[in-house]
Design goal:
Elements (H helix, E strand, L loop, with lengths): L18 E2 L4 E2 L12 E2 L8 E4 L6 H10 L7 E6 L3 E4 L1 H7 E4 L5 E5 L13 E4 L3 E11 L2 E8 L2 H4 E11 L6 E4 L51 H7 L1 E4 L3 E6 L2 E10 L2 E10 L10 H48 L13 H42 L14 E23 L2 E2 L2 E20 L4 E10 L2 E9 L2 E18 L3 E19 L5 E7 L5 E2 L3 E3 L4 E16 L6 E15 L11 E14 L13 E2 L2 E8 L3 E5 L8
Parallel strand pairs: 4-13, 6-9
Antiparallel strand pairs: 1-4, 2-3, 5-12, 7-8, 8-11, 9-10, 10-11, 12-18, 13-22, 14-15, 15-16, 16-17, 17-18, 18-19, 18-20, 20-24, 21-23, 22-23, 23-28, 24-25, 24-26, 24-27, 28-29, 29-30, 30-32, 30-33, 31-32
């Protein structure tokens, strides 16, 4: 129903139509008793799950997913569920689950369905193939029950587990999910790091990024992106879907994430662009026209963003009022109700009930008005995207003044996952996550140019891209996912008129890495990649003054998580490329101007602190909200010009 759809929307996003497909008949493996009838997929469907859950999911999308997602057949699956777990079978979810919000924390069920009677705060809800979450509270929105949840460790849902499985990673089944900058509080068995942050570290060197520097006493302090409120995050991270992928803004950069599968090869492309805000976009006709079209597109996205923020606030208000109205009616009928209202006399309850009913009508009207405005803006943005097929190609947009842009494309030919989940009495008994047989290429290009005199640059310590691509790995109804993503870091300082840095190279990578958390509370890691030589074009470094560039791109990042909308990785492996470019002033008198370019390629394994597995964490490896460990480093590529002693650092 449309009025429930706001829970399936990330404000600022364009809801892409979900066209999930599958074929054949899949055996039913549900939390309820086995033996129920198998589910038949549409005869005309294909085998691939193609679509998006980036902005949440409505009932049609959820039903299509549940009807067609296939299970991995594990050689070993022995589990005992906690008595607190409330199972929602595949058939029950098909029948009663209406929508899920963008971060997978709120679920709307049909209130009249019998399954709702089993859902109580404090319980753990296991929705087949979708989620395992702790229920925090229940709300009411017209004829729907809103189930608010938070992350829960698997060790609390499974008192005992011995699961082993292996599967190739099917890139064609990937769908988009939203990874908000604000992480939810970690499960109770995990200790939070000293500096909470939603970042995946993409750092060159062992030291964590220092916190932002404050100004004079009493001055407004800069906001740590890891400690923003949701409204502050909403103002800085906007995501929209286009025909080719996802685009938006993060940390002052416009970004795009493109995803395409061709002949079993995954093409994952990340582009970022920092435009000069003081000059019009474009240095030539086509680029300028494209920039103007992009500006219109983002204006419509922002318009939709604010309308949906208003819609969400009104939705929450209606839910609160309807929940309170139900409590008042229960008290008046002698069926219990909210203890905080039990001390009110009947007349006061009637007055409060009347006021709540009036406020609810106003909130519903506000909600519908905001949705209408959001839909109108969404339609305009869709039309703008349809008119400009190159909208996602940010790398082609050139700025006249400060022009900083990059693109990184990872072409993955194959990957495989081998994992084991072993729990006993709520404790880890040996859990491993290994990504094996990785093979692919990476194409990286950077342009940094200053078209005016003086100094210019950007400094983005770590910018996570709030879009991930999940591939479902359903094992015995347990909703595991393989997650693909990318992040970046940029620090660029240019000096002098027409200062310019340009770099373009291709790299091959092949190998694998993984982690093992043993019963003795030790976390071991392994990894090895082929060190193939890089194919590097002649870099360009020229500027009247001293200039420097550092770009770190984490692509790809492959993790194993829990939940269709899950954002935390039980374990992950990444491939990070760190580029540095420096040059001395071109006006040097006695000594020739030195230029230096280095490329480091590093692989890490790690796990998020908000992990849903009790994996022991090594304190010295704890960075932000995750820990990682370097398991491989390629031989550094370095070019010094002129290659003389004084230019070698």
């Amino acid at each position: 129903m449309k009025r429930h759809a706001v829970l399936g929307i990330l404000a600022g996003g364009l809801i892409a139509a979900l066209g999930l497909h599958g074929c054949g008949r899949h055996p039913s493996s549900t939390p309820a008793a086995a033996g129920s009838a198998p589910l038949a997929a549409p005869a005309s469907a294909s085998t691939a799950l193609r679509g998006t859950f980036v902005f949440g999911a409505d009932q049609a999308a959820l039903r299509t997913y549940l009807q067609n997602v296939q299970e991995v057949k594990p050689p070993k699956f022995e589990v005992e569920w906690s008595k607190d777990v409330v199972p929602v079978s595949r058939e029950e979810a098909l029948r009663a689950l209406r929508s899920v919000n963008a971060d997978g924390s709120d679920f709307v069920f049909t209130s009249s369905d019998p399954v709702v009677q089993r859902l109580q705060p404090g319980k753990i809800v296991w929705i087949w193939g979708i989620a395992i979450r702790r229920i925090d509270r229940l709300g009411i929105f017209e004829d729907g029950t809103v189930v608010h949840t938070s992350a829960v460790p698997l060790s609390e849902a499974l008192t005992r587990a011995d699961i082993e499985f292996a599967t190739p990673v099917d890139f064609g089944n990937a769908y988009g999910v939203y990874k908000p900058r604000i992480q939810e509080p970690p499960p109770r068995t995990i200790t939070r790091a000293a500096r909470p942050s939603g970042f995946v570290p993409v750092r060159y060197g062992p030291d964590p990024e220092p916190p932002p520097q404050g100004g004079p006493a009493g001055a407004e302090q800069p906001v740590d992106p890891g400690n923003q409120t949701m409204e502050q995050t909403a103002e800085s991270d906007m995501v929209a879907a286009t025909g080719n992928g996802y685009t938006g803004t993060v940390a002052g950069f416009q970004f795009s994430m493109g995803y395409k599968v061709s002949q079993n090869t995954l093409h994952l492309e990340l582009q970022g662009r920092k435009a000069d805000e003081n000059q019009p976009s474009g240095s030539n006709g086509s680029s300028e026209l494209q920039g103007v079209a992009a500006d219109r597109f983002y204006a419509f996205v922002e318009e939709q963003w604010h309308a949906q923020q208003d819609a969400k606030k009104s939705y929450d208000r209606v839910e609160h009022l309807e929940t309170q109205i139900a409590q008042i009616e229960a008290l008046k009928a002698g069926r219990g109700g909210d203890p905080q209202l039990s001390g009110m006399n009947p007349q006061a309850l009637s007055t409060l009930l009347s006021e709540d009913e009036q406020q609810k009508l106003i909130a519903i009207s506000d909600y519908r008005h905001a949705e209408t405005l959001a839909e109108a803006a969404r339609a305009k943005a869709r039309a703008e995207s349809a008119r400009n097929d190159e909208l996602l190609n940010l790398f082609l947009m050139v700025a006249e003044n400060l022009d900083v842009r990059f693109r990184a494309r990872a072409d993955l030919e194959r990957a495989a996952l081998q994992a084991a989940i072993k729990l006993n009495g709520g404790s880890n008994a040996g859990t491993s996550v290994n990504f094996k047989d990785l093979k692919g290429t990476l194409d990286l290009e950077l342009v940094a140019r200053l078209g005016q005199g003086g100094n210019g640059g950007v400094s983005i310590p770590v910018a996570h891209v709030p879009v991930r691509f999940n591939i479902p790995v359903i094992v015995g109804g347990v909703p595991l996912v393989v997650q693909l993503g990318a992040d970046f870091l940029a620090k660029i300082a240019l000096a002098g008129n027409h200062a310019a840095h340009h770099f373009h190279a291709k790299f091959q990578f092949a190998g694998g890495a993984g982690t093992l958390a043993s019963a003795s509370s030790q976390t071991d890691s392994n990894g090895a990649f082929d060190d193939a030589p890089a194919q590097v074009e002649q870099p360009t470094l020229s500027s009247p003054g001293v200039s420097g560039t550092v770009l770190a791109v984490q692509i790809p990042r492959l993790g194993l998580g829990v939940g269709v909308f899950g954002i935390a990785a039980v374990g992950y492996v990444d491939h990070v490329v760190v580029l540095t470019m420096t040059n001395a002033a071109a006006v040097a008198t006695l000594n020739p101007p030195c230029t230096r370019v280095t490329v480091d390629r590093i692989a890490h394994v790690g796990a998020d602190v908000t992990t849903v597995m009790p994996i022991p964490l090594v304190e010295q490896l704890l960075h932000a909200l995750s820990w990682n460990k370097e398991v491989w480093r390629a031989k550094q590529w370095i070019r010094v010009d002129p290659d003389i002693k004084m230019c070698r650092i």
